[in-house]
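If you are new to this repository, start here. Below is one unmodified record pulled from the training split, so you can see the exact layout before writing a loader.
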Amino acid sequence: MARLTAAILVLSAVFAAPVAASLYEAVTAPTADFGRPEAYERNPGGATTTARIAGRDAFMQMAQNLGFADRMQFSLGDAVFRRAWVAAPASTQATDGLGPLYNARTCDGCHARNGRGDPATAGLLLRLSIPPRGHAEPPGTAPDPVYGAQLQDLAVPGLRGEGRRTVAYDERPFTFADGSVVSLRHPSYTLTDLAYGPADPELTLSARLAPQLIGLGLLEMIDEADLLARADPDDADGDGISGRPNRVWDDERQAHALGRFGWKAGQPTLSQQNAAALAVDMGLSSPIRPMAAGDCTAGQPACMSAPHGDSPQFEGLEVPSMLADPLDFYTAHLAVPARRAIEDPQVLRGKALFYGAGCIACHAPKYVTMTDASRPALSHQLIWPYSDLLLHDMGDDLADGRPESQANGREWRTPPLWGIGLLATVNGSAFYLHDGRARSLTEAILWHDGEAAAARDAFAAMDAEDRAAMLAFLESL
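And here is the target side for that same chain:
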C-alpha cells in the first residue's frame, strides 16, 4: 500500500492530475525508446537534484527542495561531518574522544568532498575477520581476537597504531575482440609492523573503498517490496541473475531487516551505517553504538583503559544525539547532481548498449520513493540510482572470502551508478569497485564475472566505437 500511495503522489505531482496507481509500473519500467531522453531523466534525484555540478563541489550540495529549517539542520550536519576530533581529555568536551585507535579524525578524511576514497589513503580500509568459533559477529565471521574488525593504523598519543597494510598489484592483460588491450590489476594485501603481536593465522583481509555519499536518503526511501520484487535467489527465470537480499540485524528495531548500505549491504539504515563508521573508523561513541573504546579488544588492554570522551554533559557519549541526528540528516540529504549531455546521440547510443548488454538486470534504473511525513523532501520522488541494492555473485577474482550476515564471500551489493561520471572531477582521480583496483570504467566492467559475466562479455565483444558510446553514457550519470 505504501508503494502504491507513493506512486499516486509522485505521478500526481509529475502530471498535475490524479492518476491510477497502476501507472507506477509504467513509469518505473525500463524504456525501449533510445531515440531521446526519458521524461525527468535529467533529474536522477527527483526534486532533490542539484544543477550545481561544476567543479569539485558537485557532491557537496543539499537537496534542492529543503525548507529553511531543514537547510539549517543540513548545515549543522555538514559541520559535524567535517569536525576534527581530538584525543580525550581535551579542553572542549564537544570535540574529544577520538580513538584510542582510528583511521581518520574526520568523516571527510575518508569521504573527501563526499566522494570516493583513494586506495593510497585512509579512504581504503581493511576489514578483518576469522571463521566463527562457536559464535558469529555478524553471522559467518568473527573479528580478530586482538586486532578486532578493522585495521586502525593511527592511535592517540601514548598508544601505537595497529599496523600498516601493503598492497601488491598483479597486472593482467585483457584483449578485446577488436585486438585492443587493457591491463587489469589484481591486488594482494598483507599486514606489516603489527604492534600487538601476531594476527590470527586464519585471518581474512577485505579491502573496502569509501564510496560517494550522494543520494543515500533516497535509497533508504525505496520501498522494500520494490527491491524484493527484483530478487530471484534461485534464478527461477533462468536468466543467470539471482539477486538476493541481505537480511541483517537492526540494532534500533532489535530485529532482522533488509540490508541496504555498505559494499555487502551489511547495514539496514543510514543512521546505523553512520554509527558504525563513527565507532570503528574514528573510535567515537554515539547513541546506536555507545562504544567509547571503538574497535579496541581485550587483547589491547592499554587501549581499553585509555581515557575516553564520554561525558554526562553529552548523554554520556562522545557523539550525542544533538550531533548524531544532524549528521544523519546531512548524509541523507546530499543531492544527486543533474545528468549531463543526455540528448547527445553518443550518450543515447551508449544507453541502448548498456540496456541491451543486460546491465540493468542488476543496475535497475528507476524507482519511486515511499511517502514519509518525517522526510518530506525525500518522499514520492522518481529517482534513477541504477541499482537493485541486492547481492550478486561477482565471481572468483572479485571475491574477498568474507561472509557478512547472509552475504557470502563472492557476493556484493550492486552499487548505485548515479554520480559515477563525476568522480574524477570531485576527487581529482577516480577508482572503482569495492577495493579501488579499477582505474577506469573499462577496467571496472571487465572485472565483472559470475552473474555479470554475460554483460561483461557483451561489452568486450563491442567495437571501439560502441565501447566509447557505452562509457559516454556512464560518464553522463
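Two things worth knowing about this chain: The chain has two domains: 2-69+217-244+333-476, 84-213+246-323. Residues 84-213+246-323 form one domain.
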